[in-house]
Amino acid sequence: MLGTDRCVVEEWLSEFKALPDTQITSYAATLHRKKTLVPALYKVIQDSNNELLEPVCHQLFELYRSSEVRLKRFTLQFLPELMWVYLRLTVSRDRQSNGCIEALLLGIYNLEIADKDGNNKVLSFTIPSLSKPSIYHEPSTIGSMALTEGALCQHDLIRVVYSDLHPQRETFTAQNRFEVLSFLMLCYNSAIVYMPASSYQSLCRMGS
Protein backbone atom coordinates (compact mmCIF):
# COMPACT_ATOMS: atom_id res chain seq x y z
CA MET A 1 0.00 0.00 0.00
CA LEU A 2 1.41 3.38 -1.03
CA GLY A 3 2.14 6.01 1.59
CA THR A 4 -0.29 8.43 -0.06
CA ASP A 5 -3.14 5.90 0.20
CA ARG A 6 -2.30 5.28 3.82
CA CYS A 7 -2.39 9.01 4.57
CA VAL A 8 -5.79 9.34 2.88
CA VAL A 9 -7.25 6.49 4.97
CA GLU A 10 -5.74 7.71 8.23
CA GLU A 11 -7.05 11.22 7.59
CA TRP A 12 -10.54 9.79 6.95
CA LEU A 13 -10.39 7.77 10.16
CA SER A 14 -9.42 10.74 12.33
CA GLU A 15 -11.72 13.16 10.51
CA PHE A 16 -14.90 11.23 11.26
CA LYS A 17 -13.99 10.62 14.91
CA ALA A 18 -13.64 14.35 15.50
CA LEU A 19 -16.88 15.19 13.68
CA PRO A 20 -19.65 16.73 15.86
CA ASP A 21 -23.19 15.40 15.40
CA THR A 22 -24.36 18.70 13.94
CA GLN A 23 -22.02 18.30 10.95
CA ILE A 24 -22.80 14.68 10.03
CA THR A 25 -25.36 15.63 7.36
CA SER A 26 -23.02 18.05 5.60
CA TYR A 27 -20.17 15.53 5.90
CA ALA A 28 -22.33 12.84 4.25
CA ALA A 29 -23.14 15.20 1.39
CA THR A 30 -19.45 15.83 0.63
CA LEU A 31 -18.03 12.34 1.23
CA HIS A 32 -18.43 11.29 -2.41
CA ARG A 33 -16.10 14.13 -3.47
CA LYS A 34 -13.11 12.41 -1.86
CA LYS A 35 -12.01 10.73 -5.09
CA THR A 36 -8.88 9.11 -3.64
CA LEU A 37 -10.60 7.67 -0.56
CA VAL A 38 -12.61 4.84 -2.09
CA PRO A 39 -9.69 3.26 -4.03
CA ALA A 40 -7.54 3.52 -0.90
CA LEU A 41 -10.20 1.77 1.19
CA TYR A 42 -10.44 -1.04 -1.38
CA LYS A 43 -6.70 -1.59 -1.02
CA VAL A 44 -7.04 -1.85 2.76
CA ILE A 45 -9.93 -4.34 2.52
CA GLN A 46 -8.08 -6.50 -0.01
CA ASP A 47 -4.98 -6.74 2.20
CA SER A 48 -5.93 -8.91 5.17
CA ASN A 49 -2.59 -8.15 6.86
CA ASN A 50 -3.03 -4.38 6.71
CA GLU A 51 -3.03 -2.90 10.21
CA LEU A 52 -5.64 -0.35 9.11
CA LEU A 53 -8.19 -3.06 8.26
CA GLU A 54 -9.65 -3.28 11.77
CA PRO A 55 -10.15 0.49 12.30
CA VAL A 56 -11.55 0.77 8.75
CA CYS A 57 -14.10 -2.00 9.41
CA HIS A 58 -15.04 -0.35 12.70
CA GLN A 59 -15.57 3.01 11.05
CA LEU A 60 -17.57 1.53 8.17
CA PHE A 61 -19.88 0.02 10.78
CA GLU A 62 -20.19 3.38 12.56
CA LEU A 63 -21.19 4.96 9.25
CA TYR A 64 -23.72 2.22 8.60
CA ARG A 65 -25.43 2.54 11.97
CA SER A 66 -25.80 6.28 11.41
CA SER A 67 -29.26 7.66 10.72
CA GLU A 68 -27.85 9.41 7.63
CA VAL A 69 -28.77 7.26 4.62
CA ARG A 70 -25.86 8.52 2.49
CA LEU A 71 -23.39 7.23 5.07
CA LYS A 72 -25.10 3.84 5.03
CA ARG A 73 -24.78 3.72 1.25
CA PHE A 74 -21.11 4.63 1.51
CA THR A 75 -20.53 1.46 3.55
CA LEU A 76 -22.83 -0.62 1.34
CA GLN A 77 -20.68 0.03 -1.73
CA PHE A 78 -17.93 -2.10 -0.16
CA LEU A 79 -20.22 -5.01 0.70
CA PRO A 80 -19.38 -7.21 -2.34
CA GLU A 81 -15.64 -6.75 -1.72
CA LEU A 82 -16.02 -7.46 1.99
CA MET A 83 -18.00 -10.63 1.26
CA TRP A 84 -15.49 -11.80 -1.35
CA VAL A 85 -12.51 -11.25 0.97
CA TYR A 86 -14.38 -12.91 3.84
CA LEU A 87 -15.12 -16.02 1.74
CA ARG A 88 -11.53 -16.14 0.45
CA LEU A 89 -10.14 -15.97 3.98
CA THR A 90 -12.67 -18.54 5.18
CA VAL A 91 -11.48 -21.01 2.55
CA SER A 92 -7.86 -20.39 3.55
CA ARG A 93 -8.87 -20.81 7.23
CA ASP A 94 -7.23 -17.49 8.09
CA ARG A 95 -9.60 -16.81 10.99
CA GLN A 96 -7.39 -14.20 12.65
CA SER A 97 -7.38 -11.85 9.64
CA ASN A 98 -11.05 -12.57 9.07
CA GLY A 99 -12.31 -11.40 12.47
CA CYS A 100 -12.98 -7.70 11.84
CA ILE A 101 -14.60 -8.33 8.44
CA GLU A 102 -16.80 -11.03 9.96
CA ALA A 103 -17.80 -8.65 12.78
CA LEU A 104 -18.70 -5.92 10.26
CA LEU A 105 -20.83 -8.24 8.11
CA LEU A 106 -22.64 -9.63 11.16
CA GLY A 107 -23.13 -6.11 12.51
CA ILE A 108 -24.81 -4.96 9.29
CA TYR A 109 -26.95 -8.12 9.22
CA ASN A 110 -28.11 -7.68 12.84
CA LEU A 111 -28.96 -4.03 12.20
CA GLU A 112 -30.99 -4.83 9.10
CA ILE A 113 -33.09 -7.72 10.41
CA ALA A 114 -34.79 -5.47 12.98
CA ASP A 115 -36.72 -2.20 12.71
CA LYS A 116 -35.99 0.92 14.77
CA ASP A 117 -38.05 -0.49 17.67
CA GLY A 118 -36.03 -3.70 17.75
CA ASN A 119 -38.72 -5.90 16.21
CA ASN A 120 -37.73 -8.38 13.53
CA LYS A 121 -38.65 -7.24 10.03
CA VAL A 122 -40.48 -9.19 7.34
CA LEU A 123 -39.55 -7.97 3.86
CA SER A 124 -42.48 -8.14 1.46
CA PHE A 125 -44.17 -6.46 -1.46
CA THR A 126 -47.78 -6.31 -2.66
CA ILE A 127 -48.97 -7.32 -6.10
CA PRO A 128 -51.56 -4.70 -7.11
CA SER A 129 -55.05 -5.73 -8.18
CA LEU A 130 -56.09 -4.87 -11.73
CA SER A 131 -59.57 -4.11 -10.41
CA LYS A 132 -58.20 -1.03 -8.63
CA PRO A 133 -57.21 2.08 -10.61
CA SER A 134 -53.55 3.01 -10.75
CA ILE A 135 -51.31 5.50 -12.57
CA TYR A 136 -50.97 2.86 -15.31
CA HIS A 137 -54.56 1.84 -15.98
CA GLU A 138 -58.27 2.35 -15.36
CA PRO A 139 -60.28 -0.77 -14.52
CA SER A 140 -62.90 0.12 -17.13
CA THR A 141 -60.37 -0.20 -19.96
CA ILE A 142 -59.95 -3.93 -19.36
CA GLY A 143 -63.66 -4.69 -19.09
CA SER A 144 -63.80 -6.32 -22.52
CA MET A 145 -61.08 -8.80 -21.63
CA ALA A 146 -61.79 -12.32 -20.41
CA LEU A 147 -60.91 -11.12 -16.90
CA THR A 148 -63.83 -8.79 -16.37
CA GLU A 149 -63.90 -6.13 -13.69
CA GLY A 150 -66.38 -8.23 -11.72
CA ALA A 151 -64.06 -11.23 -11.83
CA LEU A 152 -61.06 -9.15 -10.86
CA CYS A 153 -62.88 -7.68 -7.86
CA GLN A 154 -62.99 -11.16 -6.36
CA HIS A 155 -59.20 -11.15 -6.07
CA ASP A 156 -57.65 -9.34 -3.13
CA LEU A 157 -54.22 -7.74 -3.11
CA ILE A 158 -51.55 -10.42 -2.89
CA ARG A 159 -48.74 -9.93 -0.38
CA VAL A 160 -45.53 -11.72 -1.27
CA VAL A 161 -42.93 -12.27 1.48
CA TYR A 162 -39.43 -12.48 0.01
CA SER A 163 -37.51 -12.47 3.28
CA ASP A 164 -39.08 -13.86 6.42
CA LEU A 165 -38.01 -13.31 10.03
CA HIS A 166 -34.29 -13.81 10.66
CA PRO A 167 -32.68 -14.53 14.05
CA GLN A 168 -29.83 -12.50 15.51
CA ARG A 169 -26.41 -13.98 14.79
CA GLU A 170 -23.32 -13.62 16.96
CA THR A 171 -20.97 -15.60 14.73
CA PHE A 172 -20.78 -17.25 11.34
CA THR A 173 -21.18 -21.02 11.14
CA ALA A 174 -21.30 -23.40 8.20
CA GLN A 175 -25.06 -23.65 8.79
CA ASN A 176 -25.92 -19.91 8.80
CA ARG A 177 -23.28 -18.47 6.45
CA PHE A 178 -25.36 -18.74 3.27
CA GLU A 179 -28.47 -17.30 4.96
CA VAL A 180 -26.61 -14.27 6.37
CA LEU A 181 -24.71 -13.48 3.15
CA SER A 182 -27.88 -13.89 1.05
CA PHE A 183 -29.70 -11.43 3.29
CA LEU A 184 -26.80 -8.97 3.02
CA MET A 185 -27.04 -9.16 -0.77
CA LEU A 186 -30.74 -8.28 -0.47
CA CYS A 187 -29.70 -5.16 1.44
CA TYR A 188 -27.14 -4.32 -1.24
CA ASN A 189 -29.61 -4.91 -4.07
CA SER A 190 -32.15 -2.60 -2.45
CA ALA A 191 -29.68 0.29 -2.93
CA ILE A 192 -27.84 -0.93 -6.02
CA VAL A 193 -28.93 2.02 -8.16
CA TYR A 194 -27.00 4.36 -5.84
CA MET A 195 -23.75 2.41 -6.04
CA PRO A 196 -20.72 3.77 -7.94
CA ALA A 197 -19.03 1.95 -10.82
CA SER A 198 -16.26 0.64 -8.55
CA SER A 199 -18.87 -1.23 -6.49
CA TYR A 200 -20.35 -2.85 -9.62
CA GLN A 201 -16.86 -3.99 -10.63
CA SER A 202 -16.38 -5.51 -7.20
CA LEU A 203 -19.75 -7.25 -7.46
CA CYS A 204 -18.73 -8.78 -10.80
CA ARG A 205 -15.43 -9.98 -9.31
CA MET A 206 -17.25 -11.60 -6.42
CA GLY A 207 -19.74 -13.26 -8.73
CA SER A 208 -17.06 -14.70 -10.98
Task: Give the overall silhouette.
Answer: globular
Tell me the β content.
Answer: 5-15%
Structural class by helix and strand composition = mainly alpha
Poorly predicted runs are none
What is the N-to-C succession of helices and strands? HHHHHHHEHEHH
Mean pLDDT score: 82
Largest sheet descriptor: 2 strands, antiparallel
- How much helix, percentage-wise, in residues? 40-55%
The side-by-side strand order for the widest beta sheet comes to 1-2
Keywords: Cell membrane, Cytoplasm, Membrane
Subcellular location: Cell membrane; Cytoplasm, Cytosol
Pfam families: Hyccin
InterPro entries: Hyccin (IPR018619)
Characterize the structure shown.
There is one protein chain. The model has no long low-confidence stretch (mean pLDDT 82). The chain is mainly alpha-helical and 208 residues long. It is built from ten helices and two strands, in the order H-H-H-H-H-H-H-E-H-E-H-H. The longest helix has 18 residues, at 95-112. The chain has two domains: 1-115 and 169-207, no CATH class; 123-157, no CATH class. The radius of gyration is 22 Å and the shape is globular. One of its GO terms (cellular component) is cytosol.
Short description:
It is found in: Cell membrane; Cytoplasm, Cytosol. By secondary structure, the protein is mainly α. It contains 10 helices and 2 strands.
